[in-house]
Amino acid sequence: MAEDVVVDIRSLTKIYRDFWGRKKKTALNALDLQIRRGEIFGLLGPNGSGKTTTIKLLLGLLFPTSGEAFVFGQPAVDVRKNEKIGYLPEESYLYRFLNAEETLDFYGRLFSMPTRVREERAAELIRLVGLENDKKRTLREYSKGMRQRIGLAQALINDPDLVILDEPTSGLDPLGTIWMKELIIRLRDQGKTVLMCSHRLDDVQDVCDRIAILYNGDLQEFGEVKKLVEDAKRVEVRATNLPLTDELTRDLETVIAKHGGKLESVGHPTTTLEDLFKRVVEESKARPGRRYLPPGVVAKP
Amino acid sequence: MLATFPSLLGVMELSGNNYSWSDLGNLTIVWVQDAGGFAAVGLLLWVLYVLFAPAPAIAGRRRRLISGFMAVTGSLALILYLIAIGLGFIVRADDQKWAEQFAALRSANPQAQVPARPTTNIDQYHAYAMTVGGLLALLAFAQPFVLDLGGLSRRRIWAIARLSFKEAVRRRVLWVLFLFAIVFLFPATWFYFKKVKPEDVLKTNIDVISYAMTFLLCLMAGLLSAFSIPSDIKNLTIHTIVTKPVERFEIVAGRFLGYAGLMTLATFVLTSVSLVLIMTSNIDEAARAESMKARAPVYGRLDLVQEKVENRQLLTRSFAGIDVGREYAYRRYIAGGSASQRAVWNFVEPGELKSFADREAVPLEFAFDCFRMTKGEENIGVKCSFDLVTWRWDLAREEEYQNEVRAAFGSYPANIRYRNEPNTAERLKESWRKIGEIAQKYGRFEFRGLEVYDYHTYQLMIPPGLIRNALEGDPGKNYPIRTDRGPVRLQIKVKCESPSQYIGVAPLDLYFLDSEGVFWWNFVKSSLGLLCRLCIVIGLAVAVSTYLAGVVSFLLAGVLFLGGYFQEFLQSLADGTNVGGGPLESLTRLVKGSVVAAELDKTPSVQAALFGDDLFRWLLRRLLDVIPDPERFTWSKYLAQGFNIPIDFMLLNVLFLAAYLAPWMLMAYYLMRSREIAA
Fold first, then answer.
1. Is position A79 within any domain?
2. Same domain, A27 and A12
3. pLDDT under 50 in chain B at which residues?
4. Would you tell me which of B203, B232, B366, B379 could form a disulfide with B238, CB atoms 3.0–4.6 Å apart?
5. Which of A62, A65, A106 sits opposite B159 (nearest CB)?
6. Which of A177, A212, A229 is the last residue before a domain boundary?
7. B243 and A62 in contact by Cβ < 8 A?
8. Is the preceding omega at residue B475 within 30 degrees of 0, hence cis?
9. Among B56, B166, B238, beta carbon nearest to A63
10. A99 and A25 in one domain?
11. Total domain count for chain A?
12. What is the pLDDT of residue B8?
């Protein structure tokens, strides 16, 4: 296995059987996949496609029916490989009777971290995930978003080389989602490898370098995001300082036709709803008291 | 001989049968045979699992699920078991032939004791095959576990133990149980409306505290342990643990240690509070004298005999004792009056008696049951006589002995008591010295007409001269009075002198008092027995919960634990000595309307039923191998009766506890290892 390959999956198959050994469902069918060091890899697919099964097989929560999986060169069932892995489950499966500090302390102990290192790391992560003011409250009192944050903190407690995130933006508000995506990119910039599962395709498109799309346990598509989503049959031109007029439209039609193409549409491009939301929130923070005004209405001085 | 040693793995009898370190060898062999049998079954299941179930991904340097060592030793174990099974058929045929010789006796009385068949070479080879086969199976099955032990992290186990502790403490429902336990710590006689004899007050209080604490703490321990791992799996919190570098068995070990630690703390708190309440309460003097002690006894071996003197020869014949119709057959009875019946305690080992030789007086304590056929005289107890003779006593010197006693004290018997109060008259001290000299010269001491009442503890002082006589020289191989441990050096013969009355005796009813310990320390030691029982509950519940759901684990652990309290009944079912036969035979008799004493016609259906019962008994014997013996760790009964709990006795029983829990932990290791957590 090449040194830059962190996860190596070879013909991995998982068939669920009933008590009598009869086949119930093929959750994963001969999956072949490699995840390289330092990339953000997205695993996509509808419900029941095998995304979570793949992750569970990599983490040793399930045993494969056939095939092999290696993480950092070690078999997936070898617990020693977990020293370098951080895992954020889809739901925050943490002990609700513990508070944030106790939670991170517990998971830090499972990595046999020295006390001082553990305490410093826990404090740093609590600050990172923005739970400084709530660190003494038990997880039972946390909102879903807060639990997701502390879940991420426990996934990072050991400063892992591979971070596995199952629906990382689930339960987060738009700002939380933006924060999470920025964090994921930061992790990649630190040299870590990130494997994420998500239903939110826009999130995946924003952060992932490569993706795999599963359907019914089979790998349907695989490759770099940019290349996969590129529409080679169309050409997009963007321009600034250009008033949109009928004359412009006619001129463009002529130029395009001259080159053998056909003008489909011309108009103002759209930004994303996420960008709009971000802008409004930032402006509201900068100008307290700012409110929406219908068109044509002027604010009273 | 091994048949006399019960399984350490499962049910073990205690009453009167305290094993010593010298029994460890034989007990270990029995343990290896039983644990090895289960290991063989486990090995077979593991092989089937590896062959047919999805195997964990392997690549490169393959980590085999069945190692070479496992395969080789397992195969050898299989060969030896096949040999043992073959020899077992021969042994069984011999047993059946032997039993047929006593069929008439058994049909008249199903509970009659059939003498043991003499051991043959086949029996020995069978035992060797079972032992070595069991050892090999154990080695094969335990090898992966032993290898993985080195990789376990104490820090991780400690982290999980801390988590378990915190989780339990933060569960409010358990505090309710704990508060209930506090209520029972107060002296039971405050709530007890039935009148309790003054000397039994402390005993009653201790019993109530012990039973209440046992019930509540075992319930607490069972609930916590049985639901811990299943809850983790159900709530998926275990995902965040298993995806860390945590060995599966570390979860089991951590949970066990966490709950054991919590129960230790709870036991310590409850013990401390109850001890303070007892020590500061107003205890009757009679209760203090009876129970607020920690006696260290030296026991002899009890035998009931009928004796008579014929031609200057003392002839004795053992007998089973008289059945007075008591439900609880712990004691056997001898008749009073002119009956020739005696209860004889035999002391064999010189080491047991040596410490008494240099004392001023040797305390002999006893407590008997009195069974009255008539009311007898009012306010007069049942009279007993004590005749202590050493191996050097010569019946031919009886007349000489009696004459010397008469000459010294003016009457025979002399009934001399030891007095040691500061104002004791010199003549009484002189009498004691004289009777001691006579005892040392002849090897005999008597006391007659001692009044005893039901279950009171009495003390009779024995002159040390008698002990010195018993220790002098060696009876030799030809001395006729002997036990399986050797020639008897000292006999204590008790006779009931009151006509139409009986006294009931048990092996532990009479003893020499070696020393007395401190009550509060004994109280603490008895609480360690409760802790051992809690460890059984926790170990069982955690082990079975690695595979079963919480409720099922709780019920299974509860049934196994409580089954230990009925081991005597279950053993009688397994041995076929219970009245009425097995379940299918009983059902057949119900359907046919046949009485228990009548023999059933050997029709095909009856034979099928009898075969089914044989199978049931076989299964029950296997079940008895896994049922623990909580009574073995009920040390509060020693405390309540005022007896010391010896440290080496405790250490030996802790070893028994480890021997019982080890196979369960091994099972838990394999179950956790093979379990797909996310399935």
1. yes
2. yes
3. 1-16, 57-63
4. B232
5. A106
6. A229
7. no
8. no
9. B56
10. yes
11. 2
12. 40
- Per-residue pLDDT of A22-61, as tens digits, reads 888 889 989 999 999 999 999 988 888 899 999 999 999 9
The answer to whether A40 and A194 are in contact (CB under 8 A) is yes
Residue pair B395/B460 in contact (Cβ under 8 Å)? The answer is no
Contact B492, B300 (CB under 8 A): yes
**ipTM summary value:** 0.85
The pTM of the full predicted model, rounded to 2 decimals, is 0.85
Q: Kindly state the tokens that stand for A175.
A: 């700002």
Residue A104 has pLDDT above 80, yes or no: yes
**Nearest CB to A64; choose among B57, B239, B679:** B57
Per-residue DSSP letter, A301:
-
Of the residues A95, A105, A150, the best mutation for testing chain B's interface (the one with the most B CB atoms within 10 Å of its CB) is A95
Q: Measured on CA atoms in the order B13, B16, B21, B23, is the torsion positive or negative?
A: negative
Residues 53 to 92 of A: which have CB under 8 A from any B CB? 56-57, 59-70, 75-83, 85, 87, 89, 91
Question: Is the domain of A223 the same as that of A81?
Answer: yes
| Domain co-membership, A160 together with A214 | yes
Q: Is residue A45 domain-shared with residue A166, that is, in the same domain?
A: yes
Alpha helices in B281-317 (DSSP H): 285-291
State in Å, rounded, how far the first CA of chain A is from the last one: 69
Q: What is the DSSP letter of B671?
A: H
Identify the CATH number of the domain in which residue A171 sits: 3.40.50.300
Residues A104 and A209 in one domain: yes
Residue B246 to residue A91, Cβ atoms within 8 A: no
Q: How many residues does chain A have?
A: 301
| Range of the structural domain that residue A285 is part of | 235-290
Torsion angles phi and psi, residue A288, rounded to 5:
-60, 140
Distance CA B634, CA B395 (A): 45
Determine, yes or no, domain membership for A74: yes
Q: Which of B49, B241, B244 should we substitute to test contact with A (largest number of A Cβ atoms within 10 Å)?
A: B244
Same domain for A137 and A115: yes
